[in-house]
Amino acid sequence: MCLAYPGKVVELNGDFARVDFGAGTIREDVNTSLVQAKMGDYVLVHAGYAIQVVDETAARETLRYWKEILAAMPEDRAAYESQLKGGLS
Amino acid sequence: MHVCGSHEWTITHFGIRTLLPENVEVRAGPGCPVCVTPAADIDAAVRLSMEGKTILTYGDMSRAKGSGMSLFEAKAAGGDFRVVYSVHDAVTMAAENPGREHVFFAVGFETTAPPTAYEILRGPPRNLTFLTAYRYVPPAVEAVSQSPDLAVSGFLNAGHASTVTGMKAYEPCFNKTKKPMVFAGFEPVDVLISVAMLLRKFVSGEPKMENEYTRAVTWEGNTRAQAAMDKVFDRVDGYWRGVATIPLSGFKIRTEFTDFDARTRFGLRETPGSEQFVPEARCGDVIIGKIDPPECPLYMKGCTPNSPKGPTMVSAEGTCKIWADHKVLASMRCRV
Predict the structure, then answer these.
(1) Architecture field, domain B1-281
(2) Is there a contact between B115 and A31 if contact means CB atoms under 8 Å apart?
(3) CB pair distance less than 8 Å for B225 and A31
(4) Residue A3: which CATH number?
(5) With helix as H, strand as E and coil as C, how does B93-153 read?
(6) pLDDT tier for residue B332 given thresholds of 50, 70 and 90
(7) Closest CA–CA distance from residue A12 to any residue of chain B (Å)
(8) Do A50 and A62 fall within a single domain?
(9) Are residue A87 and residue A60 in the same domain, yes or no?
(10) Is A59 in contact with B215 (Cβ distance < 8 A)?
(11) Could you give the number of structural domains in chain A?
(12) Which residue of A lies nearest to B7 if distances are taken between CA atoms?
């Protein structure tokens, strides 16, 4: 079972948190006892419990990397294809 | 090979196999906890529900059949079972109904076990017990990597299960098998990058454990969750339905918490693992990743999402259900 969703902690109440998953989906009663979450942290929620805090720095880096990959595609297609023809060693 | 139903969903939903080079094949390994839950445990839960206990479990589990009825069918026959979203709901329900025995049918991998451990440590109501059928993934990865039938060259590791265990849990298996492993996230780009990372390791010939899912997976993992699991559970051999008994891949409630163990309270005997699939069904071969769903004679003929014949077609993380929902009708083996 790897179904877990990232959401933002918008309120903390002892062992529970209100978590905003975006697009209007909010869970009021996510149990945060298994993690150390602060207001504004993103947590991975699985079956009502936060199982990990998302590392925001790593997440931003990942998103930046993906943007680079995806942005590179259409313009660089010609360059990429001629590289393939030339042989990548 | 990956070992996570959620990875199979991403791969199938986004058509990732169609983007890969012809000589690269990603297979779905045993990543569906409902699929590998022993038939004997399902039968025990059904029996208890017909004997006046309130069985509580996740939605998917309720439609899987053991050797007879599913919990869902048992309800129609007068059995008492309810779907819960979280183990916390089970605790609340039991507390609100003190006159009745409640049993939480605890199914899942190490992603799902820590909340249950936590609730047991907190001291649940006396009328709640846990029928645990949790399975631990690292030994299954080891078993699969040593199977000559499967010839796996590398692994996409279960991203969310690994947020709990940490990468460290796979070190012994990696040292034994020396096959590259990438801890992969669940967005389609996560999976593509992870496959690319594995391919680079095949080319360089230098196997490594690498982390693609850096925003969630760390070497140490969630030590609080690990501590809760260690306090509550012993690791024992576990029977994976349709596959095999894999050493140290099961979680058993420790004797000091036996008061909350449904197996003790209701005198459930340990029975040898037997798969109890319907005749001709090849669920076991699908679960282990030996065949694709279309290679089972029942797939999309007698066995469909509306009329499932086995757990792989029942569970949202079952390979057959995922392929059937996406109308994939042909095998996707390497063409080389």
Answers:
(1) 3-Layer(aba) Sandwich (3.40)
(2) yes
(3) no
(4) 2.30.30.140
(5) HHHHCCCCCEEEEECCCCCCHHHHHHHHHHCCCCCEEEEECCECHHHHHHHHHCCCCCCCC
(6) confident
(7) 18
(8) no
(9) yes
(10) yes
(11) 2
(12) A2
A16 touching chain B per CB within 8 A: no
Buried b (16+ CB within 10 A) or exposed e, B60-92: bbbbbbbeebbbbebbeeebbbbebebbbbbbe
Q: Do A34 and B111 touch (CB under 8 A)?
A: no
Based on the fold, state whether residues A40 and A72 are members of the same structural domain: no
Do the Cβ atoms of B86 and A47 come within 8 Å?
yes
Nearest C-alpha of chain A: how many angstroms from B261? 21
Nearest CA to CA, how far is B108 from chain A (Å)?
Answer: 6
CA distances from B244 to B20, B182, B250, B279, B321 (A): 31, 25, 12, 19, 22
Identify which of B119, B155, B121, B118 has the alpha carbon closest to the alpha carbon of residue B137: B155
Q: Do A3 and B33 touch (CB under 8 A)?
A: no
One domain for residues A43 and A5: yes
**Which ipTM did the prediction report?**
0.90
Instruction: Please give the residue range of the domain that contains residue A77.
Output: 55-89
Residue A76, pLDDT score = 61
- Regarding whether A38 and A8 lie in a shared domain, the answer is yes
pLDDT digit string (tens) for chain A, length 89 residues: 578 999 999 999 999 999 999 888 999 999 999 999 999 999 999 999 999 999 999 999 988 888 888 787 766 666 656 655 554 43
Dihedral pair phi/psi, residue B304, rounded to 5°: -135, 170
A17 in contact with chain B, both atoms CB, cutoff 8 A: no
A62 in contact with B at a CB cutoff of 8 Å? yes
Sorted by where each begins, the domain ranges of chain B are 1-281, 282-325
Same domain, A12 and A30: yes
A50 and A64 part of one domain: no
A43 and A63 in a single domain? The answer is no
| pLDDT tens column, B75-91 | 999 999 999 999 999 99
Backbone angles phi, psi at B77, to 5 degrees: -95, 10
Confirm or reject contact between A47 and chain B (CB < 8 A). yes
